[in-house]
Amino acid sequence: MILDELAVPIVLAPLAGGPATPELAAAVSNAGGLGFLAAGYLTEAALADQIARARALTSAPLGVNLFVPGNPAPPGAVADYAAMLAKTASEAGAELGEARFDDDAWAAKLDRLAADPLPVVSFTFGCPERPVIDAVHAAGSEAWVAVTTPGDALTAAAGGADVLVLQGSEAGGHRSSFADDPADDASGGFGLLSLIQLVRDLTPLPLVAAGGITTGGGVAAVLVAGAAAAQLGTAFLRSPEAGTSAVHRAAVATATPTAMTRAFTGRLARGVRNRFMAEHDRDAPLAYPEVHYLTGPLRAAGRAAGDPDLVNLWAGQTHELARELPAGQLVELLAAEARTALAAASARFGAG
Ligand SMILES: Cc1cc2nc3c(=O)[nH]c(=O)nc-3n(C[C@H](O)[C@H](O)[C@H](O)COP(=O)(O)O)c2cc1C
Predict the structure, then answer these.
(1) Pocket test residue of 222, 314, 317 for ligand 1, highest count of atoms within 8 A of CB
(2) pLDDT per residue as tens digits for the range 190-201
């Protein structure tokens, strides 16, 4: 298993939408962790290009993450929301995009990874059908599946996953939930420590823990709880190798709280609070990726104008602790902090 070969049990989270770059993935892998590319929103050709560039920068293992496609929203589901956003768009001097459905080039990306595999393929938004997992295995790759509940963990384990990526509710970005069900919103979802303990009790599969980890103490905590590695996303958003936009970088460095919202994409995600979220969250329909495409040009205009109030500022709950360091140095620092934290925790039992 790749996890057993890592010098440092730290995995870079896939960061679709700009922050994930070949340089960032390679830097984490070169430092002894596991770097990840994010296939989400890329064309198959762009994915192939990113894989080639990452391979040119490292000979260490790499992973790639794919979005499992969902179903189109009912006809007209987005019309009222589009009408509401029209004023915000015209004030920003931007057009709204076409609220269309697509499957993110799912088959083409799978074919590409079957023909030219990477050591790890991870999936979010669902557990792929068995033939997909079998094809990943046949290509010599490990299949990792992200889950947010004990029930989804059991489904993924039964479906052939080699590793479960546990995403706690602290996490930045989209929830990896198999079903984006508003009925679950009231609970806020499982916090990471609860999720690790519950899933550890259900399956012997190796666990990778994600959500709100930005310090070595956080890395140590999830290892002690039973994870084989920690997966960090927000912690790397300020690294120079990341493709994070300027407005996003600045927001990550503030102490502004985060919240979950469907306002930007039609699917629940956590980001730094801003005006767009406050004004539109309660009206946003459950329609992904239709709302993602609808708001895309508006968000791009916000990034270009340096207006954080129009941009999806995905970040986890501990974002203000993210450090502005080259990714390799950050991996080394996190590892050193984790060793210190583990020794201190162990010493608490020493006197007994
Ligand atoms: C900007 C951003 C983009 C993300 N993109 C993806 C993605 O493409 N695929 C995925 O499985 N998770 C994605 N996530 C979620 C991460 O995999 C992970 O669960 C999260 O970063 C962990 O929480 P943290 O950000 O507090 O470290 C993204 C998160 C962020 C912040």
Answers:
(1) 314
(2) 999 999 999 999
